[in-house]
Amino acid sequence: MKSKLSAWTYVKNNKRTVAVLVTALALSFMAMYAAYVLLITTSESFETVMTEMPKKVSYASLGGKAYGLKGNDYETNEELLAAYDKKQTDLVESLKKHPGIEDAFYTQIISSTYQAVMGGYSFEMPLMEPGQVQGFLDHVEAKLVRGSMPKDAGDVLVDETIMKNGGYELGDWYQKNIYGETFRIVGTIQSKSLVSVGVPNGYTNNGWYIVVYNDETATDLAAILKENGITLGDGDQVWDAKAYYEAYRKDVGDTIDMVVTTLFVIVMTFLAILVLVAYVSFMRNRIKEYCLYASIGYGRGEIYGMMLREMMILFGLGAVMGLLVSLGTAYLLNVTVIEPKGLIGHVVYGGHIQRILGTYVFLMGVLQIPVLFGLHRIKTIDAIED
Q1: Reduced to 3 states, what is the DSSP secondary structure of residue 182?
Q2: Closest CA relative to residue 240, chosen from 30, 61, 42, 5
Q3: Which residues fall within 8 angstroms of residue 50, CB to CB, at 6 or more apart?
Q4: Residue 121 in 3-state DSSP?
Q5: Helix axes 300-333, 350-366, angle to 10 degrees
Q6: How far apart are CA 190 and CA 186, in angstroms?
Q7: Residue 367 class from Cβ within 10 Å (0-12 exposed, 13-18 middle, 19+ buried)?
Q8: What is the mean pLDDT of residues 171-185?
Q9: DSSP letter for each residue of 188-224
Q10: Alpha carbon 100 to chain centroid, angstroms
Q11: Which of 69, 197, 210, 211 could staple 60 via S-S, CB 3.0–4.6 A?
Q12: Contact 157, 143 (CB under 8 A)
């Protein structure tokens, strides 16, 4: 009685060939995983700023038309400006009385920049009088962890993650390439939403905004403004939870998803071609072996079963090795690149691991075509002599 064909026999007797195939699969696994880790770091890092900050603070920059003001209705610019100031003061007072809003005021802002693997994102950094800073920190649940509170014009507090990201130290000029020697970092703060805050220094700014301290029940500032008779136009800006989410989805989430998908498809296609070519060559070199099995009484089904088990062993070893190498690479990327730059990343991404394993299953399915084709070429011992 003939024994069952063993899938391990070829693996044990051809270690070099097997090692090459397994290594290629493992490196492909690592390439797909490492690329994903670096790309998704951008998405996860920006998500923190763009979804956490609006839960606490919103911003609005409104032109005269938003208040229903028309230049032709006033004889001088001074009268128009006075009417604008009156409308804005009334709006600020009305906002303070709205449920879910703790405070609102009109002030200058500058941009705080967060640089990720794929591009950077600029978000608002309010400037206020030194006496207002502690109230801001209390509202956003931030605390001073190094340095001192702002006292003089141009003093700023920067979130510790943003400090890492920009390579700043206490005493450095904040964004010197943009604002020159205007804003000096006097303290580091720790916050869930990566906020920063400072004191104005003259009129160096990115504009004047209404700053609103809101809670999670009042994050739709655009709707609240509409309730107060404000008609938003093209020149008006409102940065609330909805606006930030739309910006995140469009500029970050969708873009990263598209890049990840495109890269994944390219790598998968390249891998499929390489594996197909390698496996066809692998089978062609063994056709005489298969003919010998057929000559001593093994049927095509038994030979196919052996070939399938061999394939599962090779892909299984490649997946295990690839997973271990990928997790090690992800850990090194987090320790040496992601964390030192103040970015947010992880080592284990279960969903992407499943996608890569799904790719392996797909490749095994594709390989059934040359395997089944090769089975039809298997004859008896006569084929060895041909």
Answers
A1: coil
A2: 61
A3: 121, 123, 244, 245, 247, 248, 252
A4: strand
A5: 150
A6: 14
A7: buried
A8: 95
A9: EEE-TT---EE---TT-SS-EEEEEEE-TTS--HHHH
A10: 30
A11: 210
A12: no
Q: Are 214 and 101 in contact (CB under 8 A)?
A: yes
> Within 13 Å, how many C-alpha atoms sit on residue 53's CB side?
26
- Tokens of residue 270, six digits: 């390249």
Per-residue confidence at 373, pLDDT binned at 50, 70, 90?
confident
| Mean pLDDT (whole number) for 25-48 | 85
What's the token pair of residue 368?
């059934």
The residue to which tokens 């805050």 are assigned:
197
Could you give the C-alpha distances from 55 to 22, 45, 109, in angstroms and in order? 49, 17, 18
pLDDT digits (tens, 9 = 90+) for 50-87: 888 889 999 999 999 999 888 788 888 888 899 999 99
- Residue ranges with strand state E in the chain: 57-61, 101-115, 120-126, 143-147, 155-159, 184-190, 197-198, 208-214, 237-239
Lowest mean pLDDT among 12-21, 159-168, 203-212, 372-381: 372-381
Q: Are strands 155-159 and 197-198 parallel, antiparallel or unpaired?
A: antiparallel
Residue 223: what residue type? A
Helix (H, G, I), strand (E, B) or coil at 284: helix
Strand partners, 198: 127, 156
Share above pLDDT 90 across residues of the chain, in percent, rounded to a whole number: 43
How confident is the model over 313-370, as pLDDT tens digits? 888 999 999 999 999 999 999 999 888 888 888 899 999 999 899 988 988 888 888 8
pLDDT at residue 380, as a whole number: 60
Distance CA 57, CA 91 (A): 17
Q: Which two tokens stand for residue 337?
A: 């690149």
